[in-house]
Amino acid sequence: QKEVEQDPGPLSVPEGAIVSLNCTYSNSAFQYFMWYRQYSRKGPELLMYTYSSGNKEDGRFTAQVDKSSKYISLFIRDSQPSDSATYLCAMSAGGKLTFGQGTILTVHP
Amino acid sequence: DTGVSQDPRHKITKRGQNVTFRCDPISEHNRLYWYRQTLGQGPEFLTYFQNEAQLEKSRLLSDRFSAERPKGSFSTLEIQRTEQGDSAMYLCASSFLAGAYEQYFGPGTRLTVT
User: E strands within chain A?
Assistant: First the structure.
């Protein structure tokens, strides 16, 4: 079993929809939780990070962490075609990152 | 302000050849990481440096792989006697020591072994 599980999708939504992306994990040592966006054949781009449990909002993006359930989420409000990409969750105990498989998201006009 | 850069961006090589990749981190960052990503998967950790010291290596990093970071600046990743299974995107990232979770990635080097 992988330390971090993420549904690969693909997920297809209409423009303006609210998108929910999720990951579960098994390693209780993880303290930092990140979301990256990756366009095709590019390096991952850091979107947000959260320390421990709680919510964090940045513009149209909201990250949630529930350590008791070992479950993290990323919500995208008012999704745009430019949000079409692969979204990767990543977790860390302080050093290396452990990634999920990535969810492919397509937002169609 | 420049981000993380990697060179080359693409490399095609024949099985059995040696290849070397270079990563230049964000200049103020003292940690540098190497990851490997195959199609449809998330990046997998290979190794990381704090300044010039290599602090951790993954079991994925076989004896054919070696990484260096002389003088704590740029880093090189060498693969000897390449195999078809080495075909992947090799990603470099860097961070501050404090805030090591906040890693910034380069564009990657795409390796194809024929």
Answer: 4-6, 11-14, 19-25, 32-38, 45-51, 54-58, 61-66, 71-76, 85-92, 98-99, 103-108
